[in-house]
Every structure is written in structure tokens, then in C-alpha cells.
Design brief:
The protein is of the alpha+beta class. It has eight helices and ten strands. It is globular, with a radius of gyration of 19 Å. Strand 6 and strand 7 form a beta hairpin.
Length: 272
């Protein structure tokens, strides 16, 4: 019997709980490299909570409260209110990012205060030593941040006003990064991906394929180029993040050997 996408997503959500609880050290490490791979403009700590804010870019990964210790729930209501005020100062709705490192006490408080949960995301990992990458055209990374940003915004059909902030974010990445693009003279940019190598871990960030050219193998082509580049530079594992609702992307990643590591989601409260 065929199951709906919603049913498959629910099954995946239930299964990930037991997986992530057994891998908290891995969760901590991937969260740390994720912060370095996508650096926020402002980062403040309240105990183990990280408050990330970036005025020029709307990404929730750059604008959220991220608890990093399941046992850290001292004065949770006061601290949540204090952190929320920082978002209000930016004119933003307060956002909490819930990973397996978040305290259940905090999550219960969010529910009690009628925060809204959204954007469940899967963090996936792949053993690059075992990965059998398909034979596709290979692409070398560019070092031109401005050109890459232009291509990424064009592929995503994002407003050009984001260019300064996105260029600043990419320029602030400290680990070695590979900026990959597929483009041609007729259609312009067709696909982009950013690969950040942090010691033995390679993070796949911002994989995008033009909406009019999907299902043509461009995603596989550019992703395998980035993974080969990282493997040649001695990366042993790759990781990425993808929304649970994006079934075509998850299917692609699974074909290349990526498997679930843990899930996270966001909670939001509208400004008062």
C-alpha cells in the first residue's frame, strides 16, 4: 500500500528521536561546525543558549535562539523573555531553534506560551570514504565571492538587495570553502552550492537548482563536484541540512549515501 508524503514525514520524525538521543556528541559537533559554516553577524551567550542575529539577512539559521544543553533550564522563562527582547530591538519575531540539545522544559514553555512550530529540517551525514559518487561533469570552485553570490541569488530568484549581506556572510566563513556554479551563456546561472570544509567534515550549504531546470541531473552534477573536491582535500564525512518537506532533495541525498543524523525545527512568536 502506498503511503502519503505526510505519513512518511511523520514516520521519519518519530524515528529520528531515538536516533538523535544516541548521538548527542555528533549533534554537538555538527552544530558547532554549522555555526562556523554559516556565521551570524552577532552572537551572544546566555548560559548554553546562543542568541544569533544578523540584521541584513532573514535566514532563521542566522536569527534564532539556539539552546545547546538539554539540562540548561534555569530561569527559563526569564531568559526566554530577555532573549526575545533582543529580536524585538531588531524588529524581528523571536525564533527558537529546537535541536536534540534543547531542554524539554524550554519546549514545554514554548507550547504553553502558544509559540508556533515550523520548518522541521533533517541533518544528514555521509561517509565520503564509502560514497560511490556517480560519473558526472566535474566543476572547479570559483574564488569570486561576488560572482557566486550573484549566481546564487539568480538561481533562488531572491532579491538583489540581499547581495551585501550574503557576500558578507560568505566572506566571514573561516574554514576553507568551495564556491561551485553551473552556468551557460544562454541561460546564465543554473545551479550553485557552497561547500565548507572544517577539518574532516565537509558541509554542503545553499544547494540550489534553477526552477526551470530541475530533474535534469544538475543537482547531482554540482553536488558530486563539491563532494569530490572535499574528499580530495581529505574530508572524511559530509553533512547537510534539508527541510523534511523537500522529498526530491532528500531522495537525491539518500542515493548518494546520506543518512539521517538528527532533526531540528523552529518555534516563533510574533512581535507584540
Amino acid at each position: 500500500m502506498l503511503r502519503s508524503t505526510a505519513t512518511i514525514g511523520a514516520d521519519r520524525s518519530l524515528a529520528q528521536a531515538s536516533i538523535s538521543q544516541q548521538n548527542l556528541p555528533l549533534v554537538r559537533r555538527l552544530e558547532a561546525v554549522g555555526f562556523r559554516a554559516w556565521p551570524a553577524a552577532s552572537v551572544q551567550y546566555d548560559g548554553s543558549w546562543q542568541v544569533r542575529l544578523t540584521a541584513g539577512h532573514p535566514s532563521n539559521r542566522l536569527n534564532s535562539i539556539v539552546p545547546l544543553d538539554p539540562s540548561d533550564h534555569r530561569d527559563v522563562e526569564i531568559r526566554l523573555e530577555k532573549a526575545s527582547r533582543k529580536f524585538e530591538a531588531y524588529g524581528r519575531a523571536a525564533v527558537v531553534r529546537q535541536t536534540p540539545l534543547a531542554s524539554p522544559v524550554l519546549i514545554d514553555l514554548l507550547r504553553a506560551q502558544d509559540w508556533t512550530q515550523f520548518d522541521e529540517t533533517v541533518v544528514m551525514t555521509c561517509d565520503l570514504a564509502e560514497a560511490e559518487l556517480p560519473d558526472t561533469l566535474d566543476h572547479l570552485p570559483t574564488h569570486d565571492v561576488g560572482r557566486f553570490v550573484d549566481a546564487n541569488l539568480a538561481v533562488d530568484q531572491a532579491p538583489a538587495t540581499l547581495k551585501p549581506a550574503l557576500a558578507e556572510i560568505i566572506s566571514a566563513i573561516k574554514p576553507p570553502s568551495g564556491l561551485f556554479m553551473i552556468e551557460n551563456a544562454v541561460d546564465g546561472p543554473l545551479a550553485t552550492v557552497l561547500c565548507v570544509q572544517d577539518n574532516d567534515l565537509a558541509g554542503i550549504m545553499s544547494l540550489s537548482v534553477s526552477e526551470t531546470r530541475r530533474r535534469e541531473g544538475l543537482g547531482t552534477e554540482i553536488l558530486t563536484s563539491a563532494l569530490r573536491w572535499a574528499r580530495m582535500r581529505s574530508a572524511r564525512s559530509a553533512w547537510l541540512q534539508v527541510k523534511l518537506s523537500n522529498r526530491p532533495a532528500i531522495a537525491l541525498y539518500e542515493r548518494l549515501g546520506f543518512r539521517d543524523a538528527y532533526h531540528y525545527c523552529y518555534w516563533q512568536r510574533e512581535p507584540r
